[in-house]
Write a structure and sequence with these properties.
- With 260 residues, the chain is an alpha/beta fold.
- The chain has 2 domains: 6-97 and 210-258, Rossmann fold (3-Layer(aba) Sandwich), CATH 3.40.50.1860; 101-207, Rossmann fold (3-Layer(aba) Sandwich).
- Helices cover 46% and strands 17% of the residues.
- Helix 11 links the parallel strand 9 and strand 10.
- Helix 1 (17-26) packs across helix 10 (209-219).
- The structure holds D-glutamic acid.
- D-glutamic acid (DGL) binds at residues 11-12, 15, 41-44, 74-76, 118, 121, 149, 185-187.
Length: 260
Protein backbone atom coordinates (compact mmCIF):
# COMPACT_ATOMS: atom_id res chain seq x y z
CA UNK A 1 0.00 0.00 0.00
CA UNK A 2 1.40 3.41 -0.95
CA UNK A 3 0.75 5.97 1.77
CA UNK A 4 0.16 9.66 0.99
CA UNK A 5 3.47 11.58 1.09
CA UNK A 6 4.22 13.42 4.31
CA UNK A 7 6.79 15.50 6.11
CA UNK A 8 8.25 13.46 8.95
CA UNK A 9 9.36 15.38 12.03
CA UNK A 10 10.97 14.09 15.21
CA UNK A 11 12.46 15.14 18.51
CA UNK A 12 13.13 13.59 21.90
CA UNK A 13 9.94 15.23 23.16
CA UNK A 14 7.79 18.32 22.78
CA UNK A 15 10.66 20.52 21.50
CA UNK A 16 10.14 19.68 17.84
CA UNK A 17 6.59 20.99 18.09
CA UNK A 18 8.11 24.49 17.95
CA UNK A 19 9.40 23.56 14.49
CA UNK A 20 6.23 21.67 13.51
CA UNK A 21 4.18 24.79 14.31
CA UNK A 22 6.23 26.72 11.73
CA UNK A 23 5.86 23.92 9.16
CA UNK A 24 2.08 23.98 9.64
CA UNK A 25 2.07 27.79 9.22
CA UNK A 26 4.09 27.67 6.03
CA UNK A 27 2.69 24.48 4.50
CA UNK A 28 -0.85 24.03 5.84
CA UNK A 29 -1.75 21.47 3.15
CA UNK A 30 1.25 19.20 3.60
CA UNK A 31 0.45 16.30 5.93
CA UNK A 32 2.94 15.74 8.74
CA UNK A 33 3.81 12.84 11.00
CA UNK A 34 5.49 13.70 14.31
CA UNK A 35 7.37 11.39 16.66
CA UNK A 36 8.29 12.43 20.21
CA UNK A 37 10.69 9.95 21.78
CA UNK A 38 9.72 10.86 25.32
CA UNK A 39 10.58 7.43 26.73
CA UNK A 40 14.22 8.19 25.94
CA UNK A 41 14.25 11.88 26.85
CA UNK A 42 16.57 13.66 27.41
CA UNK A 43 18.83 13.00 24.43
CA UNK A 44 21.17 15.82 25.49
CA UNK A 45 22.97 13.80 28.15
CA UNK A 46 23.44 10.66 26.02
CA UNK A 47 26.39 9.42 23.97
CA UNK A 48 26.35 9.98 20.20
CA UNK A 49 25.96 6.28 19.31
CA UNK A 50 22.85 5.97 21.43
CA UNK A 51 21.26 9.09 19.89
CA UNK A 52 22.09 7.70 16.44
CA UNK A 53 20.35 4.42 17.25
CA UNK A 54 17.18 6.23 18.43
CA UNK A 55 17.21 8.54 15.38
CA UNK A 56 17.68 5.59 13.04
CA UNK A 57 14.71 3.70 14.47
CA UNK A 58 12.46 6.76 14.20
CA UNK A 59 13.65 7.53 10.66
CA UNK A 60 12.80 4.03 9.50
CA UNK A 61 9.34 4.38 11.05
CA UNK A 62 8.75 7.80 9.43
CA UNK A 63 9.74 6.48 6.01
CA UNK A 64 7.32 3.55 6.52
CA UNK A 65 4.62 6.13 7.29
CA UNK A 66 5.21 7.84 3.93
CA UNK A 67 7.69 10.57 4.89
CA UNK A 68 9.35 12.01 1.78
CA UNK A 69 11.22 14.71 3.74
CA UNK A 70 12.44 14.29 7.32
CA UNK A 71 13.02 17.21 9.66
CA UNK A 72 15.26 16.41 12.61
CA UNK A 73 13.55 18.96 14.85
CA UNK A 74 16.16 18.57 17.55
CA UNK A 75 19.58 20.21 17.70
CA UNK A 76 20.98 17.32 19.73
CA UNK A 77 19.82 14.60 17.32
CA UNK A 78 20.95 16.69 14.34
CA UNK A 79 24.42 17.14 15.78
CA UNK A 80 24.71 13.44 16.56
CA UNK A 81 23.04 11.85 13.56
CA UNK A 82 22.38 14.10 10.56
CA UNK A 83 25.44 12.90 8.63
CA UNK A 84 24.87 9.31 9.74
CA UNK A 85 21.23 9.35 8.56
CA UNK A 86 22.06 11.04 5.25
CA UNK A 87 24.62 8.31 4.54
CA UNK A 88 22.25 5.52 5.58
CA UNK A 89 19.13 6.83 3.75
CA UNK A 90 20.53 8.51 0.63
CA UNK A 91 17.10 8.69 -1.07
CA UNK A 92 15.51 10.71 1.74
CA UNK A 93 16.16 14.44 2.07
CA UNK A 94 16.83 15.49 5.67
CA UNK A 95 16.62 18.92 7.26
CA UNK A 96 18.79 19.26 10.35
CA UNK A 97 19.16 22.00 12.92
CA UNK A 98 22.24 23.82 14.12
CA UNK A 99 22.70 26.59 16.69
CA UNK A 100 21.94 29.91 14.95
CA UNK A 101 25.30 31.43 15.90
CA UNK A 102 25.95 33.01 12.50
CA UNK A 103 22.74 35.09 12.24
CA UNK A 104 23.00 36.06 15.90
CA UNK A 105 26.56 37.33 15.49
CA UNK A 106 25.63 39.15 12.29
CA UNK A 107 22.80 40.96 14.06
CA UNK A 108 24.66 41.59 17.32
CA UNK A 109 25.71 45.16 18.07
CA UNK A 110 27.89 44.21 21.03
CA UNK A 111 29.68 41.30 19.32
CA UNK A 112 28.71 39.10 22.27
CA UNK A 113 26.03 36.41 22.00
CA UNK A 114 24.81 33.76 24.39
CA UNK A 115 23.88 30.22 23.37
CA UNK A 116 21.62 27.93 25.40
CA UNK A 117 21.90 24.28 24.44
CA UNK A 118 22.11 20.71 25.66
CA UNK A 119 25.44 19.17 26.65
CA UNK A 120 25.56 16.89 23.57
CA UNK A 121 25.06 19.87 21.23
CA UNK A 122 27.66 22.03 23.01
CA UNK A 123 30.25 19.26 23.06
CA UNK A 124 29.61 17.97 19.53
CA UNK A 125 31.94 18.54 16.61
CA UNK A 126 29.26 20.43 14.60
CA UNK A 127 29.14 23.21 17.21
CA UNK A 128 32.94 23.39 17.46
CA UNK A 129 33.10 23.80 13.67
CA UNK A 130 30.47 26.55 13.79
CA UNK A 131 32.40 28.49 16.43
CA UNK A 132 35.64 28.15 14.51
CA UNK A 133 33.99 29.36 11.33
CA UNK A 134 31.94 32.29 12.59
CA UNK A 135 33.07 33.26 16.06
CA UNK A 136 36.85 33.30 16.11
CA UNK A 137 37.10 37.04 16.72
CA UNK A 138 33.75 37.35 18.54
CA UNK A 139 32.55 36.31 21.95
CA UNK A 140 30.10 33.43 22.27
CA UNK A 141 29.05 32.40 25.76
CA UNK A 142 27.74 28.85 25.72
CA UNK A 143 25.53 27.68 28.56
CA UNK A 144 24.59 24.02 28.81
CA UNK A 145 21.02 24.14 30.11
CA UNK A 146 19.63 20.63 30.68
CA UNK A 147 17.13 21.84 33.28
CA UNK A 148 15.36 23.89 30.62
CA UNK A 149 14.45 20.69 28.73
CA UNK A 150 12.78 19.35 31.86
CA UNK A 151 11.08 22.69 32.62
CA UNK A 152 9.69 22.85 29.07
CA UNK A 153 8.42 19.26 29.23
CA UNK A 154 6.78 19.92 32.60
CA UNK A 155 5.64 23.39 31.56
CA UNK A 156 6.79 24.58 34.98
CA UNK A 157 8.39 27.86 33.83
CA UNK A 158 6.11 29.95 36.02
CA UNK A 159 7.37 28.46 39.30
CA UNK A 160 9.88 30.43 41.36
CA UNK A 161 12.39 27.57 41.23
CA UNK A 162 12.28 27.44 37.41
CA UNK A 163 12.59 31.21 37.11
CA UNK A 164 15.68 31.10 39.34
CA UNK A 165 17.15 28.36 37.16
CA UNK A 166 16.55 30.44 34.03
CA UNK A 167 18.08 33.50 35.75
CA UNK A 168 21.21 31.54 36.69
CA UNK A 169 21.63 30.41 33.10
CA UNK A 170 21.13 33.73 31.34
CA UNK A 171 22.29 36.48 33.72
CA UNK A 172 26.02 35.77 33.23
CA UNK A 173 25.53 36.16 29.45
CA UNK A 174 23.74 39.44 29.82
CA UNK A 175 26.28 40.70 32.37
CA UNK A 176 28.99 39.90 29.81
CA UNK A 177 27.26 42.13 27.24
CA UNK A 178 25.28 39.61 25.16
CA UNK A 179 22.48 41.26 23.18
CA UNK A 180 21.30 38.04 21.48
CA UNK A 181 20.54 34.66 23.02
CA UNK A 182 20.40 31.71 20.64
CA UNK A 183 17.80 29.09 21.56
CA UNK A 184 19.89 26.12 20.42
CA UNK A 185 17.47 23.47 21.60
CA UNK A 186 13.98 23.16 20.14
CA UNK A 187 12.43 22.88 23.60
CA UNK A 188 13.45 26.44 24.48
CA UNK A 189 11.08 28.46 22.24
CA UNK A 190 8.31 27.18 24.55
CA UNK A 191 10.06 29.06 27.37
CA UNK A 192 10.65 32.19 25.28
CA UNK A 193 8.10 34.34 27.06
CA UNK A 194 9.63 33.64 30.47
CA UNK A 195 13.21 33.96 29.20
CA UNK A 196 12.31 37.29 27.58
CA UNK A 197 10.72 38.60 30.78
CA UNK A 198 13.82 37.70 32.78
CA UNK A 199 16.31 38.89 30.14
CA UNK A 200 14.46 42.13 29.42
CA UNK A 201 13.08 43.41 26.14
CA UNK A 202 16.46 44.64 24.88
CA UNK A 203 17.71 41.08 24.44
CA UNK A 204 16.86 39.31 21.17
CA UNK A 205 16.02 35.62 21.32
CA UNK A 206 17.04 33.74 18.17
CA UNK A 207 14.94 30.77 17.09
CA UNK A 208 15.82 29.20 13.71
CA UNK A 209 12.59 27.21 13.29
CA UNK A 210 11.00 29.45 10.58
CA UNK A 211 14.14 28.94 8.46
CA UNK A 212 13.95 25.19 9.06
CA UNK A 213 10.34 25.15 7.85
CA UNK A 214 11.39 27.04 4.69
CA UNK A 215 14.11 24.48 4.06
CA UNK A 216 11.59 21.62 4.46
CA UNK A 217 9.38 23.35 1.90
CA UNK A 218 12.30 23.61 -0.55
CA UNK A 219 13.07 19.89 -0.14
CA UNK A 220 9.51 18.66 -0.76
CA UNK A 221 9.74 16.87 -4.16
CA UNK A 222 8.55 19.29 -6.86
CA UNK A 223 6.63 16.56 -8.72
CA UNK A 224 4.56 15.52 -5.65
CA UNK A 225 1.19 17.12 -4.95
CA UNK A 226 0.41 17.03 -1.21
CA UNK A 227 -2.76 14.98 -0.63
CA UNK A 228 -5.10 16.07 2.17
CA UNK A 229 -4.65 13.80 5.18
CA UNK A 230 -4.85 14.17 8.95
CA UNK A 231 -1.60 15.01 10.67
CA UNK A 232 -0.39 12.12 12.81
CA UNK A 233 1.23 12.27 16.25
CA UNK A 234 3.21 9.56 18.05
CA UNK A 235 5.03 9.42 21.35
CA UNK A 236 7.00 6.67 23.04
CA UNK A 237 5.88 8.24 26.33
CA UNK A 238 2.46 8.96 27.82
CA UNK A 239 -0.06 9.53 25.01
CA UNK A 240 -2.67 11.31 27.18
CA UNK A 241 -0.08 13.76 28.48
CA UNK A 242 1.24 14.42 24.98
CA UNK A 243 -2.29 15.03 23.70
CA UNK A 244 -2.74 17.68 26.35
CA UNK A 245 0.64 19.29 25.53
CA UNK A 246 -0.35 19.46 21.84
CA UNK A 247 -3.37 21.47 22.87
CA UNK A 248 -1.50 23.77 25.26
CA UNK A 249 1.64 24.33 23.18
CA UNK A 250 0.49 24.47 19.56
CA UNK A 251 -3.29 24.59 19.82
CA UNK A 252 -3.79 21.23 18.11
CA UNK A 253 -6.59 18.82 18.97
CA UNK A 254 -5.55 15.36 17.77
CA UNK A 255 -5.32 11.78 18.83
CA UNK A 256 -1.90 10.48 19.80
CA UNK A 257 -0.64 6.95 19.16
CA UNK A 258 1.96 5.08 21.12
CA UNK A 259 5.28 4.64 19.33
CA UNK A 260 7.11 1.51 20.39
N1 LIG B 1 14.93 19.24 21.81
C1 LIG B 1 16.26 18.75 21.80
C2 LIG B 1 17.22 19.72 21.12
O1 LIG B 1 16.83 20.50 20.28
C3 LIG B 1 16.91 18.15 23.00
C4 LIG B 1 16.27 17.88 24.27
C5 LIG B 1 16.88 16.67 24.96
O2 LIG B 1 17.91 16.80 25.64
O3 LIG B 1 16.31 15.61 24.75
O4 LIG B 1 18.40 19.69 21.38
Amino acid sequence: MVLPPKIGVFDSGIGGLSVLREIHRLLPNHPTVYVADQANLPYGTRPVTEIQAFSDRITRFLIDQGAVVIVIACNTASAASLEYLRAKYPDTPFVGMEPAVKPALEASKTGVVGVLSTRATAEGSLYKRLLKRYAEDKRVITQVAPDLVRIAEEQSQRTLASQNTIKNYICPMIDAGADHIVLACTHFPFLAETIQEIAGQAIHLVDPSPAVARQASRLWPADLEPEPELNAYYTSGDTANFKQLLRVLIDVEASVTHFL
